User: Fold MOSC domain-containing protein from Cupriavidus pampae.
Amino acid sequence: MIEGNASGVAVVAAVAGSPKHEFSKHVQTSIRLMAGHGVEGDAHAGSTVQHRSRVRVDPTQPNLRQIHLIGAELHRTLAASGFTVAPGALGENVTTEGVDLHALPTGTLLRLGADAVVELTGLRNPCSQIERFQPGLLAKVLGRDASGALVRKAGVMAIVLAGGVVSAGDLIAIDLPQPRYHRLEQV
Assistant:
């Protein structure tokens, strides 16, 4: 499940946040994760849903999307298809390097740096905002598997279990849940 990079380890490639409900987030030197809340000062942080579409449906539901992670590998794949996508551009808080995020099961713990721990809750559901960001991009982050089932490739979502400061270059440790893995589904 770890792809490995030039150094053979999983690392944080970049971190980003935004206090506004805007599509892209701004790359920062570091972000502070807060347990049960998300990224300090980020518009999507909170114990209950913060994504506007979810708030309209039920503002009391738990926020399973406190933090959004995307692999730098996706950025490179998109660049090879002619798209310009930098860290934070697709709304992610953490860009990883050397981890196949989509292959990890629900409940996987990622230890980001010295203190922060996040638990994977599911897949990001690519929406029309991606298409508005760059025409044709939505089709590149959605696909079909051999059986025709929809494959979402726009990153994973997580909740924050333990807070801490996360910076580019921090190591990522992966703790898989107990066997009887459940694949990530849309949240």
User: Anything to note?
Assistant: The radius of gyration is 15 Å. Helices lie at 52-57, 72-80, 128-133, 137-140. Residues 11-175 form a domain with the M1 Pyruvate Kinase; Domain 3 fold (CATH 2.40.33.20). The first helix runs from residue 52 to 57.
